[in-house]
């Protein structure tokens, strides 16, 4: 846990590469994890090329968990439990995990999976060791937008978490991302609202033929 | 159903008076319904005074159901079933109801009531005669903002409904409201997202000490 890298578990998809790009724009260096080191390397090459300098390094997911204080969980929701399970023994007390997954299904039209805990974020809280802090962020931003470095974010994004301390520490990491305002949405149960907003954004993107639908919260 | 008035069932509270004000600003005339004619009269006096001309008329809820093609259900959610029940025999095929309620509870912190149908809007759909169309709108706008005619809305608001025809007809009624863009959120099940957004707005208003928190959807 000694490195200054921000870790991305399963960071090779559009969501993970997009968040890596935006964290890099905010001045962070990232460790891209994957089950396969080769996949991680490919993603790293793409990220470094996009940013124009060496901001990303490749690793396995387990190496990411061993070496990073801040870990973004950027796999699709259906793989989250397997990724956490394979790294279970490598988590360390005081680490902070940021869940960016949304429990969506596209069978018979987009909808949220019904989860006993009430939301994907709360489900992931139950899977993680209790000594690890959990926040949820980037839930309502389209992966397509995150991964296009030429497209300004120009919107608000919401963060919630299992303690004020976790939220504040994660906001410090995220605050450097240009053109993005972070709004503190309080307890982890706010994932119920944020994930429902992702679903709405997907429906609106389809209806209005966009891939860039996102939110601003006015009046605060 | 011959009048040109837009009906507000239980239109005497802040939400009902606020929507009456905004519909009036959009060129509509409104019939304010209440269980008690006296309460309706008081609300009507307040509305006409705010707008500066005779835009509102008082009635009982049952008279509103008998006389209006478009009916806004503006009671608190917990009274919705009683208001629909008392007017059950007066609804007519082809009427359009607009649900603006949100199934909130403030006991032990704000949260949404768990409803078998999945949302308040879908719950109300099950209570209404099937010959009546149902849309949901104004769910994410604070009553306090709606009721302050000097405060521009300056945001987006979402509408969903049980058919495209219902949504389109209701949008025609709402389109005259100044400084408000209507976004078509599709099927009535989008109430699950919209009601979750109301809950989030309440949490954010509390945290950021505002009463005017509201949404804009960018990128479409």
Overview of this structure, please?
Chain A has helices at residues 14-25, 37-51, 61-67, 77-87, 120-127, 143-146, 164-174, 191-207; strands at residues 6-9, 30-34, 56-60, 70-73, 96-99, 104-105, 111-112, 133-136, 155-161, 180-187, 214-218. By secondary structure, chain A is α/β, with parallel strands linked by helices. The first copy, chain A, has a single domain (6-207), classed as NAD(P)-binding Rossmann-like Domain (Rossmann fold), CATH 3.40.50. In chain A, the strands form two sheets. An eight-stranded mixed β-sheet of chain A has the order 3-2-1-4-5-8-9-10, sandwiched between helices. In chain A, strands 6-7 form a two-stranded antiparallel sheet. In chain A, strand 1, helix 1 and strand 2 form a beta-alpha-beta unit. In chain A, helix 1 (14-25) packs across helix 2 (37-51). Chain A is globular and about 40 Å long. The mean pLDDT of chain A is 97. The A-B interface holds A 111-112, 145, 154-155, 158, 183-186, 189-190, 192-194, 196-197, 199-201, 203-205, 207-208, 210, 212-220 and B 111-112, 145, 154-155, 158, 183-186, 189-190, 192-194, 196-197, 199-201, 203-205, 207-208, 210, 212-220. Strand 11 of chain A pairs antiparallel with strand 11 of chain B, so a sheet runs across the interface.
